[in-house]
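Example 3.2
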Amino acid sequence: MPRVAYFPDSFHEVNGVAHTSRHFEAFARRHNLPFLCVRAGNRALHFQQEDNVWTLELPRGPLSFPLEKDLSFDPAFGRHMPLIDEVIERFKPDLIHITGPSEVGLLGAGLANVMGLPLAASWHTNVHEYAARRSSWFLRLLPPRESSAAGETIEDITMTAAAGFYSAAQVLFAPNPELCQTLIRLTDRPCHLMPRGVDAALFHPANRHRDPADRAIVLGFVGRLSVEKNVALLAQIQHELDQSQKNFRFLVVGHGAEQSWLRERLHRAEFTGVLHGEDLAAAYASMDVFVFPSHTDTFGNVVLEALASGVPAIVTPDGGPKSIVRDGVTGRVVDDQNFAHAIAEILADPERHASMRAAARAYALTMSWDAVFEGVYAGYESLLCRHDLRMS
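Structure, written as tokens:
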């Protein structure tokens, strides 16, 4: 097996990159693979060597600035290079794998270039779409036509810059086929699928513990409460369902900048904050329908966790979640205007709802983390073969 030095954008935070990275390290531990994880943290410097798995966690410093509520960027992270060099020299990796243009990813890409090592890069976040959504405060000041054109320009510029960064890698990974094809076209690099897995033992319908007297329909959302997740649509869904469906409530799990806005408008909602482990699993299982209106997610870990919990999901036709949900079988794939209608349609037919719950669980059982990372290692083998041919 190749010796892999992995430089993730985040590890302890609540996001898709961190979630995948934790499972990647756990996969290496289960199979005793030679694996070094170099990551940022907010605690003291920590190095651990346990069998074949090494971890080097480096603190961010006082110059760090926030990107998300729990994610920062440290422009002075390069001060750790002497220690990283020392550990890399001892570990002797066959390749370096980065997850994006964070301070950690930039150092990993630089090391691969200096050491002449093959570089793999996985795309986890649609940064171009995030940039456009987070510019909405400015775009709203423009006339509609100019606002639309400016938003497209922001997306195009950001995507071009991101593609330039990822072109430094010799092989790419992406969580859905559509994104893989886009990256192949923009970077002229091979791209392998790297979807997400799910812990189907943890996320299980058996965790449903609802009071038999509680007959309300529970509509669930799990994720960051931010503009790029399109969470404002939850308020619109509530307004539309209020016209016909009175016995329902939202269960909203997560935190983010839009939380106060949602609290003011969702009068039928429980906000739990961030949940983990068994508490999160119980929250999913208590839902009747999972509502995920994001247009920017590259995969949608939370959608897969909902399906594993036996909860059909309603998603948009954009991004990765549509590749998880089979329309009409494990949930619905609809545009923003039809979310409320799709919810009402599913709940109006108890037999169909039960069938969707069973199909959702059955699909999730096919999505193991081991299968995901075995595919990644197959991609590594092809990368190393091409690298050896170039060097011979």
